[in-house]
Amino acid sequence: MARPKLCRRLSSPPPVKGFLPYGWGAKEGNPVELALEEYEALKICDYEGLGQEEGARRMGVSRPTYTRVYEEARRKVAVAFVEGRPLVIQGGKVRYESAWYHCHRCMSNFSSPEETVSCPQCGSLEPEPLEHCLFQGCGRCHKCKADRGSCSSYSGEEPGDHREHGKEKS
User: Fold this and answer.
1) Which residues, at least 6 apart from 157, have a Cβ–Cβ distance to it below 8 Å?
2) 165 and 154 in contact (C-beta within 8 Å)?
3) In terms of residue numbers, what domain contains 112?
4) How far apart are CA 102 and CA 100, in angstroms?
5) Same domain, 128 and 80
6) Which of 3, 15, 21, 138 could form a disulfide with 26, with the two C-beta atoms 3.0–4.6 Å apart?
């Protein structure tokens, strides 16, 4: 039996949920799914320009594991580009470095080390943990209503706990 997959540490959620191709060769169906840890590996190496050793340290995995995640991410992006398929960023077993929140008034996502959380954009005192909105669907905003039911793995654990995003737990 294979060893259980460990949680990968992410610095922040992606700013978008994916990308759609456009033009004469674009295909609408059959999206390529890029896991959250694969997105993070691409961000660390290709966007931030850091090496795989540093990437492995930041994500809390071994360097060989990081290399496998990074290579799979690059392969998936290449498939989406070459075949003109949509790219969706979702799923994976991850945890964030700090608590992230979602504001229903201005729709922003932000991180806060404070106990009393207020939105830095609009000052609302009613933001909810991002995990609740993304993975359970609060139903209070158009983001959550559109995503409701997209992740059935939310377990009711507190923010920062380990959970498998976008996948059914067995």
Assistant:
1) 163
2) no
3) 98-165
4) 7
5) no
6) 21
Q: Is the model's pLDDT at 127 over the cut of 80?
A: no
47 secondary structure, DSSP code: I
Q: Give the Cα separation of 78 and 58 in Å (integer).
A: 25
Share of the chain above pLDDT 90, in %: 32
Q: Is residue 2 in a domain?
A: no
Which residues contact residue 143 at a Cβ distance below 8 angstroms, ignoring those fewer than 6 apart?
102, 107, 133
pTM above 0.70, yes or no: no
- Is the distance from CB of 127 to CB of 102 less than 8 angstroms? yes
Total residue count of the chain as it appears in this document: 170
Tell which of 71, 93, 115 closes a domain.
93
Here the tokens at position 146 are 């559109």
